[in-house]
Amino acid sequence: MNGLMMDVPATITSLMQFAENVHPNTEIVSVTADNPRHRYTFADAFRRTRKLANALQALGVARGERVGTLAWNDYRHFELYYAVSCAGMVCHTINPRLFAEQIEYIVNHAEDRVLFLDPMFIPLLEPLQSKLPGVKHYVVLTDEQHMPATELPGAISYEALIEPHSDSYDWPALEETAACALCYTSGTTGHPKGVLYNHRSTVLHTYASCLPDALGISRSDVILPIVPMFHVNAWGVPYGAVMAGAKLVFPGPKMGDGETLAALINEERVNLSAGVPTVWLALLNYLVESGKRVDSLKRIVVGGAACPLSIMEDFEEKFGVYTHAAWGMTEMSPVGTFNSRLDRQALGEAEYAKLRVKAGRPIYGVEIKIVDDDNRPLPWDGVAFGALKVRGPWICSEYFKLESSAAHDQDGWFDTGDVATIDADGNMQITDRSKDVIKSGGEWISSIDLENTAVAHPAVAEAAVIGVYHPKWTERPLLLVVKKADAEVSREELLAWFDGKVASWWVPNDVVFVDSLPHTATGKLSKKDIRQQMADYRFAE
Amino acid sequence: MNGLMMDVPATITSLMQFAENVHPNTEIVSVTADNPRHRYTFADAFRRTRKLANALQALGVARGERVGTLAWNDYRHFELYYAVSCAGMVCHTINPRLFAEQIEYIVNHAEDRVLFLDPMFIPLLEPLQSKLPGVKHYVVLTDEQHMPATELPGAISYEALIEPHSDSYDWPALEETAACALCYTSGTTGHPKGVLYNHRSTVLHTYASCLPDALGISRSDVILPIVPMFHVNAWGVPYGAVMAGAKLVFPGPKMGDGETLAALINEERVNLSAGVPTVWLALLNYLVESGKRVDSLKRIVVGGAACPLSIMEDFEEKFGVYTHAAWGMTEMSPVGTFNSRLDRQALGEAEYAKLRVKAGRPIYGVEIKIVDDDNRPLPWDGVAFGALKVRGPWICSEYFKLESSAAHDQDGWFDTGDVATIDADGNMQITDRSKDVIKSGGEWISSIDLENTAVAHPAVAEAAVIGVYHPKWTERPLLLVVKKADAEVSREELLAWFDGKVASWWVPNDVVFVDSLPHTATGKLSKKDIRQQMADYRFAE
Description:
homodimer, alpha/beta, Rossmann fold, nine-stranded mixed sheet, seven-stranded mixed sheet
C-alpha cells in the first residue's frame, strides 16, 4: 500500500525557486577577470538565469544535451549551473588544468554543443577547436567591453548572448531522475570517465551535506568555496548555499592566492570555506608571513587529499579556525564522510589529534563497508583494513557511455579504489589506494601511513612510498623523499625515524632522495609516474 | 536523459540501518510506567526491533496492514515505530486523549489488526473492545511482572510477545512510496481524518527538519521530545535523532510534569527539547516556584499553537534558553516553517520581539503561498493576509479512504485552513483560522491578533474572539475573557486597552467575562464550542 503524500519530485528547479522566494536578498560576491568585486543577490542571479535559459533554447540546445564550461568560481558559472540543469540540459564542468588532449577527449566524448569559457582559456581552446567538431557555439564569460579578439568560430560574449532575451521563462517539469550535470574523473590510467548526476542525487546530497554534522550550512553563514566549480560541483556548496540562503563569495581565478583569499574573507566576513590542502597551506603561509588575521573565519573544510595535522593545528592555535576533514569522490557527488567538530577537552590531546585527521563518519544516505579480497565484510574496529565500498542515491551506478565498470559489484556497491579502516564509532580512515597498497609476504602495508610518518620528519618536504619487487617478500616499500630547502638528513636517519612509529616489518627497505615528485592535474602524487621513474630500481641484497 | 546514479530508495529502513552501523552506542533513556529510568543504546533498540518484527509476522500482520499504538513517549513505542514501518506495515499512532467514541471510530476506520497500549489505557479500551471487531490482538507495553489483570481478549505483555523471537530479521526491500505511518487529525468538525505517510516523505522531512535553520540536530545533542509520539510522530524527532545519532530522552507519561521534566533535563544533560506552549508554561512555573535551574538546556522548539512572547522572554532572560517558534500540521509530517535563531543585537529589541513570535520561514521541501478568495497569490509584504496553501513531498495528497477533499486544489496545493501573512524575507505569521476570521463589512479581522492583544493585559488569563452577527457589518468581533485569579478589570478598561494597538475598526464590540473556555483534545481553544455557547448572543444597539 502506498502512502498518500504529494508526488513532488526533488529537483534543482525546486531548490532554485525556493531560494528565489525565501532568500531573494541573499548576496553573491564574485571576483572575475573583468571585475574585482561583482555583487548582486539571489533574486538578480535567478532573473539572469532565466535570460540564459532563453538564450540556450535560442541556440538550439535540446533537452538532455550537454553544455560545457571551462570556468572559475563566479556568478556567471553559478547562473550556468542553474540555467542549464533546470532547463533540462546537462551542465558539463571541465577542469581547465587537464592536458589539452584530455580536454579534447572529454568535450568530444560528452558531445558538448556549446562551450562557455573564461577569457583566459581562449589560448587553450583556439588550437583545439578544429578537433571539436560537435561544438557549435563558443561563449566567453565576459561582457562586450572586455571581449578579447579570438579565432574561436562565432565566439560571443556571455552578456551579449543573454542581453536580448526575456527574463521570464517557464521551467519545464522534470523527473527527478533526469540528468543535470556531468563531471569527468581524471583517473591516473586510461581516459577520463564521466559521472552523470541527476536532480534527485543533487537534492539529496545537498540535504545531507548541509546537516549540522557535515557542512552545517545556515542562513547566517558566509561561504567561500575555494574548491573549483569544475571539481565535483565545488563539493555541492553552490547548491547548499542556495538551500540555506547563505551568502556566497566566489574567488574567481584567484583561488590559489593567499592574499586575495585573506582580503575576501576579511571584507566579506566569510566564516566558512572549503578547499584542498594546498590552498590552506597557501593561505596559512600568507597569514604567517604578512601578520594578517582572518577573524571572521570559524571553520574550513578540507578534502581532495589527506590534510596534514600540522595545517589543522596551525589554523586552530594561531587563527582560531577549526578544520574539518572530509572525504568523497567525483563518483559520490562528492561527500561520503565528514569529520564533525570534536570535543578537544573531552577527548584529550592524543585522541583529538588521532581522530581529527580521519575522514569522519558517513553522512546519512551513504552506506560504507570494508571488505577483504573475497568481498567478505571486515570488522569496524579501527584496525582491520580492506577495500572500501559505498552505496547510496548520490553514488554513480555506471559511467557515461561506458556500459559496465569493474568498479561496480554485482550487488550494486561501488568500489572506491581506496583501502580503509572504520572504527566502532563509524569513523573511516583511508590507509591507501588499492593499487598503491604494498603487499609484503601476503600482508598489506599502507603506503600513506609511511608517507605521513616520513613527512612528519622536520627535514622532509614531500614523500612518496611505492611497492618494489622483492624476491623474498614479493613487494617491499621504497621511500622517495624531497628534502626541505637547506635541510639535511641521511638515509639511515630517515629509516631510524620509523622505529616505534610503525610496525618493524613496515619500515621501508631503502630511501631515494629526489628533487621533486610528479603530480596529477588535480595536484595529487602520481604514483603511476613514480613507479615508471623507478621501474629499473632494484633493492640491493 | 536520466542520470547514472544508484537507484537506492529513501526508506526508514535505511535510516535505521545507518544508525545501527554509525551510531550504535548512542543512548535512549526512558521513563515508563514500570521503570523510572530505562536506559539502553541504539544497538539494543534495533536488536529488539528485529525481535518485534518477527513477533508481528508471527501474529499474522500482513504488509500494508495497520498496527495501532496508544502509548506515551518511551523506548517500546520507539521500537514499534521502526519495527512496524520497516517490516512494511503501517504504524498507526492514536491520541489517547481523544473521546472514546473518536478512538472507536479511528481504530475501526484504520482497520487496526493489533493494538499496543500502555497499561494505563486498559480502562479506556476494556469498555470499547466489543466495538472493535477488527482488532485481533492486544499487547500491553510492559513486562510479565508488571502485567495488570485485564479483560482485553488474549492480552499479552510486550516483553512476553517479543521474548521468544529471534533478533535476526531480513528487512524487506520497500519502495520509498510505501505507506509507513498513519495519524488522524482531530478536526473540530466531522470525523477525524487519517494522514498516511510514506517512507520517502518521512526521510525527506527528516533531512529538512534536521537542517541548521530548523531543529538543527547533531550527534552532540541530547533531545527530550515532550511532544507526544502520537502527535504527528513527535514532530519527527524520533527520526531526526536517529539520522544524527543524538541521544534521546523520553518522558513517558510524565510529559506535563514540570518537576519530572526538570529532573530529566538536569540528570541527562538535555540541551534541546520540543513541545506545545502549555508544557513550557508548566516547566517555567515549576522552575520559578522551585528555584531550580536547567543549565544544560539551550534551545526549545514550540509548536502546536502560537507561543506567547512572555514565555519566550522568561525562558531567555531567566534561564538562558532560546525558544524557536515552528509551525506545521498533521497533514505536513508536520514541519512547514521554522523560526531559526535571530540575532537580537542586530535586529534591536522591537524587531526581535516582533519577528520571533512569527512561525518562521518554510524549510526547503515546503512551498507556501497566500491567496485571496479567487485563489490569486497575494504579495509577501508582511501586511497582506490570505488563505495559506502549501505543497511538497511530505504533504498529504488526500486522506486515508477519503477519495477527495475540499482542502486540495486542482493544481495540487493543500489549503491549510489558516490565514497568514508572509514578509519579504519569507517569514510566515498565522493571523487566523480561515473559519475563525471575522468578516466585517467585506474586510477581514484577525481573531488571533485580538486574542494576543487581550492576553497581553495583566488581568487576562485567557481570551477568545469570535465573529458574531451584526446587522450593519455582517460580523463584528466579540471578546470572551477569563480573568486571572484575584485580578479585576472592567469591560471599558479592556476595550480601551486595544486603542493604538490595533486598527480602530478592529476593536471588539463587546466583552463577555467567563469562568473558563472550552478546549479541544489537543489543548487548543475550541471556537466551535464557543460559537455554540454564544449562539444566542446579540450585540446591544
